[in-house]
Amino acid sequence: MFKCGDAKQGKHHETQSKETAMSIQTLSRTHRPQVSVLARVLQLAAFSRSRAGLANLDDHLLRDIGLTREEALAERARPLWDAPPHWKG
Q1: Which of 15, 30, 60, 71 is most buried, with most CB under 10 Å away?
Q2: Nearest alpha-carbon partner for 42 in 80, 76, 78
Q3: Are 65 and 50 in contact (CB under 8 A)?
């Protein structure tokens, strides 16, 4: 049989579950920017290494991938944040 105390206890658990869910959402929102900032810094560092590596390739290797020395140097000179959309994946 269903008792009056059980209904109160059920409401308490429901309220507690909602509060826990809200706390988890708040926690994930407050910590997400830190992770994405770190990820962005690591991504920018990878862009920089890729561009430097491209500029350091020999001319015959650049020809193999269809680039000139001038294009490779121009790519290296681009600002860190200036990356093609497909690099940002």
Answers
A1: 71
A2: 80
A3: no
**Residues across the chain:** 89
What distance in Å separates the CA atoms of residue 75 and residue 73, rounded to the nearest whole number? 5
Q: Where are the alpha helices (DSSP H) in 1-89?
A: 4-55, 59-64, 69-77, 85-88
Predicted local distance difference test score (pLDDT) of residue 16 = 64
CA distance readout (Å), 86 to 19, 47, 82, 89: 40, 12, 12, 5
Task: Report the distance separating Cα 81 and Cα 68, nearest Å.
Answer: 23
Amino acid 59: pLDDT = 96
Q: How many CB atoms lie within 10 A of CB 44?
A: 14
User: Amino acid letter at 45?
Assistant: A
Assigned token pair, 17: 């579950």
Is 47 in contact with 80 (CB distance < 8 Å)?
A: yes
